[in-house]
C-alpha cells in the first residue's frame, strides 16, 4: 500500500513537471514566433525603405543627367574657345571607376549651379541656331558702330593732343599716343563688334562686316577733321 502511494505521488509529480515543461515550451514557442514576426516586419520595412531610397537615387541620377545634358548643349552654343566647339557629351564613367563621394542632393544641385554660372556668366545668351551667321538687321548697323567707336577714340586723341600742348614732362609721349589713337580710330569698332557677334550669336565677322565698320569709322573721322578744321 505504501509503495502504491509512493508511485502515485511520483506519477503526480511527473505529470506536474510535464505540464510545467509544456507550458514553458509553449511560452518559448510563442515568444519565438513573436520575435520572428517582429524581425520579418522589420525586414519588410527595411526593404521598403531601401526601395524608396533606390527609386529616389535613380530619379536623382536621371535629373542630374538631364541637367548635365542641357548644360553641355548650352556650352556648345556658347563657344567659349574661339574657333572651337565641344563635341558630343561624354558618356558617364562607370561607378567602379569613380571615387566614393559623400554628397547629398543639395551638394549636387549646388555643383550644377556652379557649372551653369561658369558657362553662362549671367543670364543665358540668345543662340540663333548653329549656322554662326549674323542676323540680317545687324550688318546695316555696323557702320554706325564703327562711327561711334571712331568718334570716341578721336575725342580721346584730341584730349591727349590738347594735354601735349601743355608744359608737361610727358608731352612728347602724349602727342605720340594721341597721333596713334587718331590713326587707329577708324578700326576701333572692329574688336567691339567681333566680341559682340561672338558672345551674342556665336558668329564671326566676315570681310564685308569689317569693311562696313572701317567705312563708318573713316566717314566719322573725316567729318570730325572737317568740323575741327
Automatic annotation (TrEMBL):
<keyword id="KW-0175">Coiled coil</keyword>
<keyword id="KW-0812">Transmembrane</keyword>
<feature type="coiled-coil region">
    <location>
        <begin position="33"/>
        <end position="60"/>
    </location>
</feature>
<keyword id="KW-1133">Transmembrane helix</keyword>
<keyword id="KW-0472">Membrane</keyword>
<feature type="transmembrane region" description="Helical">
    <location>
        <begin position="141"/>
        <end position="164"/>
    </location>
</feature>
<feature type="transmembrane region" description="Helical">
    <location>
        <begin position="176"/>
        <end position="197"/>
    </location>
</feature>
<feature type="transmembrane region" description="Helical">
    <location>
        <begin position="209"/>
        <end position="228"/>
    </location>
</feature>
<protein>
    <submittedName>
        <fullName>Uncharacterized protein</fullName>
    </submittedName>
</protein>
Amino acid at each position: 500500500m505504501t509503495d502504491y502511494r509512493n508511485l502515485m505521488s511520483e506519477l503526480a509529480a511527473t505529470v506536474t513537471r510535464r505540464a510545467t515543461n509544456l507550458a514553458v515550451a509553449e511560452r518559448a514557442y510563442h515568444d519565438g514566433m513573436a520575435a520572428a514576426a517582429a524581425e520579418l516586419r522589420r525586414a519588410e520595412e527595411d526593404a521598403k525603405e531601401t526601395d524608396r531610397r533606390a527609386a529616389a537615387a535613380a530619379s536623382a541620377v536621371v535629373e542630374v543627367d538631364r541637367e548635365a545634358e542641357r548644360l553641355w548643349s548650352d556650352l556648345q552654343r556658347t563657344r567659349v574657345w574661339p574657333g572651337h566647339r565641344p563635341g558630343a557629351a561624354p558618356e558617364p564613367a562607370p561607378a567602379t571607376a569613380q571615387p566614393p563621394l559623400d554628397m547629398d542632393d543639395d551638394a549636387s544641385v549646388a555643383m550644377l549651379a556652379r557649372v551653369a554660372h561658369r558657362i553662362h556668366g549671367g543670364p543665358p545668351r540668345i543662340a540663333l541656331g548653329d549656322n554662326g551667321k549674323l542676323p540680317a538687321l545687324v550688318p546695316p548697323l555696323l557702320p554706325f558702330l564703327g562711327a561711334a567707336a571712331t568718334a570716341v577714340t578721336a575725342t580721346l586723341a584730341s584730349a591727349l593732343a590738347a594735354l601735349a600742348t601743355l608744359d608737361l614732362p610727358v608731352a612728347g609721349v602724349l602727342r605720340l599716343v594721341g597721333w596713334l589713337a587718331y590713326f587707329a580710330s577708324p578700326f576701333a569698332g572692329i574688336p567691339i563688334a567681333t566680341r559682340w557677334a561672338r558672345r551674342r550669336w556665336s558668329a564671326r565677322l566676315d570681310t564685308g562686316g569689317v569693311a562696313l565698320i572701317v567705312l563708318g569709322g573713316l566717314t566719322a573721322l573725316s567729318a570730325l577733321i572737317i568740323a575741327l578744321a
